């Protein structure tokens, strides 16, 4: 029974991924709760046709001020994965992001970005 449930859930995920890839070039209209700065567009309630990437569905870009805990895991100074700050000296990320570099951790760095307005 567990195998059947797992197969059904896996099938649903695969179907969603295929549909997202089919609509990769499509444009969507996303509703937001308040004024948000999205790239160069000042949004007042709705975005003007945000493009789907095929991986994040109905996502809306936001300012770094809202998500101060987000970091970029970089390999050879290029973006590789994302992570979250969980303490002063720890970042949480997916295991598949760091496993290939267990023997050569010097290639991995973490970049934190902040906005400082004076």
Automatic annotation (TrEMBL):
<dbReference type="InterPro" id="IPR043504">
    <property type="entry name" value="Peptidase_S1_PA_chymotrypsin"/>
</dbReference>
<feature type="domain" description="Peptidase S1">
    <location>
        <begin position="56"/>
        <end position="100"/>
    </location>
</feature>
<dbReference type="InterPro" id="IPR050430">
    <property type="entry name" value="Peptidase_S1"/>
</dbReference>
<protein>
    <recommendedName>
        <fullName>Peptidase S1 domain-containing protein</fullName>
    </recommendedName>
</protein>
<dbReference type="GO" id="GO:0006508">
    <property type="term" value="P:proteolysis"/>
</dbReference>
<keyword id="KW-0732">Signal</keyword>
<keyword id="KW-0378">Hydrolase</keyword>
<comment type="similarity">
    <text>Belongs to the peptidase S1 family. CLIP subfamily.</text>
</comment>
<keyword id="KW-1015">Disulfide bond</keyword>
<dbReference type="InterPro" id="IPR009003">
    <property type="entry name" value="Peptidase_S1_PA"/>
</dbReference>
<keyword id="KW-0720">Serine protease</keyword>
<dbReference type="InterPro" id="IPR001254">
    <property type="entry name" value="Trypsin_dom"/>
</dbReference>
<dbReference type="Pfam" id="PF00089">
    <property type="entry name" value="Trypsin"/>
</dbReference>
<keyword id="KW-0645">Protease</keyword>
<feature type="signal peptide">
    <location>
        <begin position="1"/>
        <end position="20"/>
    </location>
</feature>
<dbReference type="GO" id="GO:0004252">
    <property type="term" value="F:serine-type endopeptidase activity"/>
</dbReference>
